[in-house]
Amino acid sequence: MKKQISSEAMLSSSSSAADQSHPSISSEKPLSSSRDESGGAQEIVAVDRPGEYTALCRWTVESFTRVKAKALWSKYFDVGGYDCRLLVYPRGDSQALPGSISIYLQIIDPRGTSSSLWDCFASYQLSIINHVDDSLTIRKNSWHRFSNKKRSHGWCDFTLNSSVLDPKMGFLFNNDSLLITADIMILNESVSFSIDNNNEENSVVGSMTDVLSGTFTWTVENFSLFKEMIKTQKITSPVFVAGECFLRIGVYQSVVNAQEYFSMCLDSTDTEKSVLSDKSSWCLFSMSALNQKHGCTNMNKESYGRFAADNKSGDNTGLGWNDYMKMSDFVNPDAGYLLDDKAVFSTSFDVIKEFSSFTKNGTGNGYMGKFSWRIENFTSLVDLLEKRKITGLYIKSKRFQIGNRDCRLIVYPRGQSQPPSHLSIFLEVTDSRNSSSDWSFFVSHRLSVVNQRSEEKSVTKESQNRFSKAEKDWGWREFVTLTSLFDQDSGFLVQDSVVFSAEVLMLKETSLTKDYKEAGSGNSVSQIDKTVKSSFTWKVENFLAFKEIMEKRKLFSKFFQAGGCELRIGVYESFDTICIYLESGQSAGKMWIIIYGLSTRWFMKVSDMLEADAGFLVRDTVVFVCEILDCCPWFEFSDLEVLASDDVQDALTTNPDEVIGSEKSEEDTFRQVSP
Question: Which intervals of the chain are annotated as region Disordered (predicted)?
Answer without folding.
Answer: 1-39, 655-675
